[in-house]
Amino acid sequence: MFQSPMPAAPSRPEPPQVLFDGEHLQLLYQPGPGPLTVLSFDIMHARANGRNAFARKLCLRNGLPLLGVVPKYPCWYPATEIVRIAEICRRLGRGPVIAYGASMGGYGALRWGKFLGAHHVLACSPQATIDPGQTGPGDRRYGRYFQPAQHAVMAVRAEHVAGQAAVLYDPRFGPDRVQAGLLADLDGVSLLPLPFVAHGTAACLSGSANALAAFQHLIAGDFAALRRQLLARRKLGGRYHLELATAAIRHGRHALAQRLAAPVLATDPLGYHMVMARRAMAVGEPAAAAGHYRSALAAKPGHRIAEMHLAKLVAEAGEVA
């Protein structure tokens, strides 16, 4: 197994090089002495700014070279500009090249990793497609971003997949289960179920040493060891505890739900208050639920779901009054 040089990261690392700047995406390059290259694809909420890319901090800490594909909007990486960065990526990829991304980025890693020179794929909660005609009613999250002309042949197929691909997903989370089902029969794809993390499987890779160990398992093709590692790491994340608390609410175990969620308040106040609002509604305490939604909005102003539920509760309280 390789070992990263793990250089001391400079207090102010040099900004990455912008190798391509198009209408839909940027390609950034961060050199490094490490033994593998990370080809990352960013999430739908990322916005190309010439500085940030998915996994950049991880690569800096491990001394790994990074090729970062960063969107300018939720574009799902259209072919028109991917073909323009292909030769650059193939030329700069050194050692084993891992295509890595989450959600929209996971789609990019699966669909375009091989084309851009990757040998392996680590896709966290990815989509196989956002075409509503293929996803059906089970996943309507991203249909509004589907552009027939731009995404005419977007679905991931077996010939797109680089080497061995690990797809992380939560089988309890319906929309991602639909997407995993679309990928399940593709040669080269291994599904690694990680229950009770919802759409947050990428959090199981948090920590530079943890992610590097995951890359080692991926390159070795040891998916059993990779899943064991990620399941263990999952228990350290707040999302795991919130998902357990949500399950407890569904089963009427409201005191247990409160105990499970309590440790997350300090690290994820938004998530904590959203779950506690759900608990308050389940036990018939709308005023308490409204308080939790207000706290959620204090943690993240403009959160649409919290605003929607709070507005409904306020309106209902007014009607009762």
From TrEMBL:
<protein>
    <recommendedName>
        <fullName>Alpha/beta hydrolase</fullName>
    </recommendedName>
</protein>
<dbReference type="InterPro" id="IPR029058">
    <property type="entry name" value="AB_hydrolase_fold"/>
</dbReference>
